[in-house]
Every structure is written in C-alpha cells, then in structure tokens.
Amino acid sequence: MSDIHVEVHPDTATLVTKAAERFVATVVAAQKDRGSASVVLTGGGTGIGLLERVRENPGDIDWRAIDIFWGDERFLPAGDPERNDVQARAALLDHVDVDPDRVHTMPVADGIYENDPEAAAVAYAQVLGAHADGRQVPVFDVHLLGMGGEGHVNSLFPDTDAVREEHRFVVAVTDSPKPPPVRVTLTLPAVRHADEVWLVVSGDAKAEAVAAAIAGAPPVEIPASGARGLSATRWLLDTSAASRLPN
C-alpha cells in the first residue's frame, strides 16, 4: 500500500485553498508528463469549495486535456441541484473551457435509467472501461474524497454491501443512510486505481473517524480507511479534523 501523508492547516478556508493549489499543480504536472490528466471529483462543502478556489486560480491547467469523473452521485433527475455534477458545474466547469466529451457524469434518474440505478451503475462502469487503455478502470491522477462523520467516502457507508464490494468498480446504493437513499458510487477497488487519493476533511465532528482511518481501522467500519492511492494517500485536514491524531 502507498504511504499516508498528513497535512494539517489552521482552518477550513486555508485547507480548501491549499488543497486547490495542490490540485492545480498536480493536474499541470500530469499534463506536462503525459499530455493529459484524469481526475475524480467529489461533492460536499470542502469538495465544492475546492473547485471554487480552482476557478479563482486555475494556474496553467489545459482544460481541453483533462478527463473528469465523479466518485459518486445522487440518483436524481438531470439538473437537480442536489446532484454533485450540477454543483461542480456551477462552481467550476461552466466557467472554464473544458471539453464536454471529457466530462463523464454519472447517469441521471430519468430517461433510459429511470428507476434503475443498477443499470446506471453498469453504464458508468462501461464509461470507466472505455477510458482505461485496456483496463477496467483508468489510473486516475487524483481521486478527491470528502468524508462523513462516521467515516463514509463516496457513497460507501459503514457496514453496507457497497463498502464490502471487492469485484465491481461501480455499484448502486438503494438504502443510503444519508438522503437521498438512492445513489451510484465507485467502490474501494475503483478508488484504489488512483495514483493519488486525497481526503479533504474539516471539522471536529470528523476528528474521531479521521484518527481511526489513519490508524488502520477495518474499512467495513470506517470506509475511509480503505481509500488508498497507488502512489500516495493524502489526508488534507484542518486543525479541528486533526485534533484526535497523536502528536
């Protein structure tokens, strides 16, 4: 497994700003190295805040040379303001010259996938495979993650079938303890295809789960513990989220 790196910032605003700066630098480096980059976005306050900071200071990112995926999505109709992709577009993607063919949103809960999140999950797995250079999942440069107070990442909640999944890379969740109940999510095996996994977490309500995950708690109990990158796993925290860590 990759090394775990912990970076602590004095407050949430600084955390989000520094994470955005790291994101820009990592994407630019990947584009210089290979000509393109591949990232997985997340929702939530810190995830969307990070995208807003990137919008303010995009550096030298070539927006025509980046593939954008999502780690999970609320299975709601197109345009619903609760969808992660809608929030990401408002925060960043509608304001940069991104190639629309390289923005890979998860299926919506109307049209051909209406009332069928399982088929939507299969369809997104096929999208991943189509951009994976012969593999089933791309090697993402960065997989961004937030974390819930109980340790969930993407829509992988403790003690659920989704967090136990070992073979499929995308699954439907029909009984999420956090509304809305129906979602589509990348699994831990998919997360582990990222070169770097970043967990951007703020707030003392999450401190206990942060400490447990970094200490190596079983992923079925603390899903964030199972989110590991191929080269690096980065915990980007504010002081409140880091307050239960040993000095």
In percent, how helical is the residue content? 25-40%
CATH class wording? Alpha Beta
- Percentage beta strand: 15-25%
Q: Gyration radius, to the nearest Å?
A: 17 Å
Pathway: Carbohydrate degradation; pentose phosphate pathway; D-ribulose 5-phosphate from D-glucose 6-phosphate (oxidative stage): step 2/3
Protein name: 6-phosphogluconolactonase
Catalytic activity: 6-phospho-D-glucono-1,5-lactone + H2O = 6-phospho-D-gluconate + H(+)
Organism: Rhodococcus koreensis
How would you sum up this structure, described in words?
With 247 residues, the chain is α/β, with parallel strands linked by helices. The protein has one domain: Rossmann fold (3-Layer(aba) Sandwich), CATH 3.40.50. It is 30% helix and 18% strand. It is built from 7 helices and 9 strands, in the order βαβαββααβαββαβαβ. It has helices at residues 12-34, 44-56, 84-91, 117-130, 161-164, 188-191, 207-214, and strands at 3-9, 37-41, 66-70, 72-74, 142-145, 170-173, 183-186, 196-201, 232-238. The strands form 2 sheets. The protein has a 6-stranded parallel sheet with strand order 1-9-8-5-2-3. Helix 1 crosses helix 2 and helix 2 runs parallel beside helix 3 (84-91). The longest helix has 23 residues, at 12-34. The model has no long low-confidence stretch (mean pLDDT 97).
What's a quick, concise take on this entry?
Pathway: Carbohydrate degradation; pentose phosphate pathway; D-ribulose 5-phosphate from D-glucose 6-phosphate (oxidative stage): step 2/3. The chain is α/β, with parallel strands linked by helices and 247 residues long.
